[in-house]
Design a protein that fits this description.
The chain is an alpha+beta fold. The protein contains 13 helices and 19 strands.
C-alpha cells in the first residue's frame, strides 16, 4: 500500500487523468466505437503534454546528475528518439497514403455509381411529356439492381409528376439550378441529378443503402456516409443511412473487415470530407464525412498490382534495408558505449581530482594515458593544480604583507594629531581619506608659545608604503623643527621649510619629494604667515570672493639648495581658508574630465555658511560622485581654517 501511495503521489492528478483517458480510448477503439475514440484522442494530447513535461522535470532533477546518465540521455535523444520519430513519421505517412488511396477509391466508385443518374435525367429532360412515364418506368427497371427505390420527378407547365406515383413528394425551390451528386433529405443520403430550365425541373432521387455504399469497392472494408449535424453551434457526427424498409441501421463496422495478412495489419479509420446538398438550401453545398474503415493491406491490394513476384522483391528489399539499418545502429551503439566509457572515466578522474583539491591536496595529479582532448584536459588539470599550489604560497605571502600593511596603517594613524585642533582665533577642521590602506597625504597642527598656532598640509609623491614612510619622515622633521624653536617663540615659516627640505634631501632617495604648505597664525595680530613649497595654492573665501595664496618656493626634498620665502595674510571675521591636495581637484569622470578648481570653488561658495565638518563631507561626496566609482583615484585631504573671534 505504501508503494501504491508513492506511485499515486508521483503520478499526481494529471497523470491519473492521462491514464484514465488512455484506458477509455483503448476501450472505445478496440470495441469499434470510433467517434468516442476520436474524441478521447483529442483529450489525450494536452494531458500527454503535461505528463511529458512533468516526467522531463523529474528526470532532470533525479536521474541526470551523473555524467553517465546524461550521456545515455543524449544518446537516447540523438539515437532512439529520432528512430522512434522516424517510425512515427513512416507510420503517419503510410496512414496518410492509405487514407488518400482509400478515399480516392471510394470517391471514384461513388461517382461512377452516380454518373448514370445524370445521364438518365439528361435523357428524361429532353423527352416529350407523353413519353416520360414509359421512359421513367424503363429507367426504374434498369436501376433496380443498383438503386432500389429510385424516383423521377418532373415539374413544368403541365404540373408536377412523380414516377412511380407512390414516391415521396418533394418540392424544390425554383431558385435551384443544375446540380448532381449527393443530397441529404429526411435523415438519409440520396444520389441525385437535377436539370432546371426556368420553372421546368427534372430530377431523380436514388436512395443510398448501406449495402450499396459498403460495396462501392469490393474487399476494401466498410464505407459509410456520415452527415455533420450542428447542435447549438457544435458539430456532431451521425451515421445517416437507412435500409430499404426504412428502418435505421446500426453500424456494424467490425463485421465487414477483410482478414488481416499479418500482425501489423491493424484496422484503421480513414475519414474524408464529401460535398452534398440539402433540399432547403438551393445550390449550396454542405460538408459531410466519407468514412472508410479498412486494413492497409486491403487498400494497397485494391489499388496496386497484385503481382506476387513484385511483392516478393519489395519484401526482400525491405528486409535487406532493415538488416543494414540494424547493423549500423549496432555499430553506432558499440562506438558510443566505448567513447562514453572513456569520457566518463576521464570525468570521474577529474571529479576525484577536484575533490582532492577542495580538501587542500594541491599535489594530486591525474594520470594521462591518451594524447587526445581528454588527455589534454587531464594535463591542463595537472598544470592547474601546480599553479594553485604556487598561488597558495603567493596568497600566504600576500596575507603576510596585508598584515604588515595593517600594522603600517595603525602606525600611520598614530602619527596624525591625537588632540583636537587648538582654538587660537582660528578654527581648524581636517579630514583625510586615503586611496589605499596607507596614505601619502600629510597634515598636522600644533599650538606654539605666545598665543600662536602652526599647521601644515602636504602631499608626498606616489602612493602606498613608500609615500607613507616619507610622510612619517616629514612629520618627524616638522615636529622637531617646531619644538626646537618653541623656547624662542620666533618661528619663521621659510626657515622651517628650508630646513625640512635639506633634511628630506639628505635622508631619502633623490626621486622622493613632497609638496608642502606651512603656516603660523598669531591670535593677537590675526596675521597668517605662510610658506607654500610647491603645494596647490590654498583658497581664501572672503565676503563672497575667492583668492589664491602665493607660492613661495618649489617642492621639498628635490633640490638641496632651494630657497623659500614667506608671505603674510591678515584674516578678517568670516574668512575661510581652504587647503587641499590634488586628490580633490584632479580625479576624472568616465569622459576624462577633471573635477577641477572651478567646481571646487563653486561648491564651497554655495555651502560656505554650512558647518565646517558638513562642508568637508559635501566636498568629498561631490568628488566621489564625479568619478562614478567607489575606488578613489588618489588620497583626498582637506583642511579648513575659519577665522573666529574668542571672548
Amino acid at each position: 500500500m505504501s508503494a501504491l501511495r508513492q506511485v499515486l503521489r508521483r503520478l499526481g492528478k494529471s497523470g491519473l487523468a492521462f491514464l484514465l483517458v488512455l484506458a477509455l480510448y483503448l476501450a472505445f477503439y478496440l470495441a469499434g466505437r470510433l467517434f468516442p475514440a476520436f474524441v478521447t484522442l483529442f483529450l489525450l494530447a494536452p494531458l500527454g503534454a503535461i505528463v511529458t513535461f512533468r516526467a522531463l522535470r523529474f528526470i532532470q532533477r533525479h536521474s541526470l546528475w551523473s555524467v553517465r546518465n546524461r550521456l545515455l540521455f543524449v544518446y537516447g535523444l540523438m539515437g532512439v528518439l529520432p528512430l522512434l520519430l522516424l517510425l512515427v513519421l513512416v507510420g503517419l505517412s503510410f496512414w496518410g497514403l492509405t487514407n488518400d488511396l482509400a478515399i480516392y477509391l471510394a470517391n471514384t466508385a461513388l461517382e461512377r455509381k452516380l454518373d448514370p443518374i445524370v445521364g438518365a435525367i439528361d435523357s428524361l429532360s429532353r423527352m416529350p411529356a407523353a413519353e416520360r412515364g414509359a421512359v421513367a418506368a424503363e429507367m426504374q427497371d434498369a436501376f433496380s439492381k443498383t438503386f432500389r427505390g429510385i424516383a423521377f420527378y418532373v415539374r413544368d407547365e403541365n404540373g408536377a409528376h412523380r414516377y412511380p406515383l407512390d414516391s415521396p413528394e418533394l418540392k424544390l425551390d425554383p431558385a435551384w439550378k443544375d446540380a448532381n451528386g449527393l443530397l441529404f433529405w429526411r435523415e438519409r443520403f440520396y444520389g441525385w441529378a437535377l436539370r432546371a430550365n426556368g420553372p421546368k425541373q427534372v430530377f431523380a432521387l436514388a436512395p443510398l443503402s448501406s449495402e450499396l455504399v459498403e460495396n462501392l469497392v469490393p474487399n476494401l472494408g466498410v464505407i459509410a456516409l456520415i452527415e455533420v449535424k450542428r447542435s447549438h453551434g457544435h458539430p456532431q457526427l451521425s451515421l445517416s443511412l437507412e435500409n430499404p424498409e426504412g428502418q435505421s441501421e446500426e453500424p456494424r463496422l467490425q463485421l465487414h473487415l477483410p482478414p488481416a495478412v499479418s500482425t501489423f495489419d491493424i484496422p484503421v479509420f480513414l475519414p474524408s470530407t464529401v460535398q452534398h446538398y440539402h433540399v432547403d438550401a438551393p445550390n449550396k453545398t454542405h460538408e459531410g464525412v466519407l468514412w472508410v474503415y479498412s486494413r492497409p493491406s486491403a487498400v494497397l491490394s485494391s489499388f496496386f498490382s497484385k503481382s506476387e513476384a513484385l511483392r516478393g522483391t519489395l519484401a526482400v528489399l525491405f528486409v535487406v534495408v532493415v538488416i543494414l539499418f540494424l547493423i549500423v545502429e549496432a555499430v553506432a551503439v558499440s562506438i558510443g558505449i566505448s567513447l562514453s566509457h572513456r569520457l566518463t572515466a576521464a570525468v570521474n578522474q577529474l571529479y576525484e581530482g577536484t575533490r582532492r583539491v577542495l580538501l587542500g591536496d594541491f599535489q594530486h595529479r591525474i594520470p594521462v594515458r591518451d594524447h587526445d582532448q581528454l588527455g589534454d584536459l587531464s594535463e591542463s588539470f595537472n598544470q592547474m593544480t601546480g599553479n594553485l599550489e604556487r598561488l597558495f604560497s603567493v596568497e600566504k605571502e600576500k596575507e603576510r604583507l596585508q598584515t604588515e600593511l595593517e600594522i603600517a596603517r595603525e602606525v600611520q594613524s598614530q602619527l596624525y594629531p591625537k588632540e583636537a585642533p587648538p582654538m587660537r582665533g582660528l578654527k581648524l577642521t581636517v579630514c583625510c581619506d586615503p586611496a589605499r590602506m596607507v596614505s601619502g597625504d600629510y597634515y598636522d597642527y600644533q599650538e606654539i608659545a605666545g598665543g600662536k598656532m602652526a599647521f601644515a598640509i602636504g602631499d608626498v609623491a606616489g602612493k602606498g608604503i613608500s609615500a607613507a614612510l616619507l610622510m612619517a619622515t616629514i612629520q618627524a622633521a616638522l615636529r622637531a623643527q617646531i619644538n626646537l624653536n618653541q623656547p624662542n617663540t620666533i618661528l619663521q615659516s621659510s626657515l622651517v621649510v628650508s630646513r625640512l627640505n635639506q633634511q628630506i634631501w639628505a635622508n631619502t632617495a633623490p626621486e622622493k619629494y613632497a609638496t608642502f604648505f606651512f603656516a603660523t597664525f598669531d591670535e593677537l595680530t590675526r596675521n597668517l604667515i605662510y610658506t607654500n613649497a610647491g603645494h596647490l595654492s590654498p583658497l581664501l573665501f572672503r565676503n563672497g570672493d575667492v583668492s589664491s595664496l602665493d607660492s613661495n618656493g618649489t617642492v621639498v626634498g628635490a633640490f638641496p639648495g632651494a630657497i623659500y620665502d614667506e608671505s603674510t595674510l591678515t584674516l578678517k571675521p568670516g574668512d575661510l581658508l581652504l587647503c587641499y591636495t590634488d586628490g580633490i581637484t584632479e580625479p576624472e569622470n568616465p569622459y576624462g574630465e577633471m573635477f577641477g578648481e572651478e567646481r571646487l570653488i563653486d561648491l564651497v561658495k554655495k555651502h560656505v555658511q554650512r558647518d565646517d565638518r558638513e562642508l568637508l563631507q559635501i566636498i568629498l561626496e561631490a568628488v566621489r560622485s564625479w568619478t562614478g566609482t567607489p575606488e578613489l583615484q588618489d588620497d583626498m585631504t582637506l583642511l579648513l581654517a575659519r577665522e573666529v573671534r574668542t571672548a
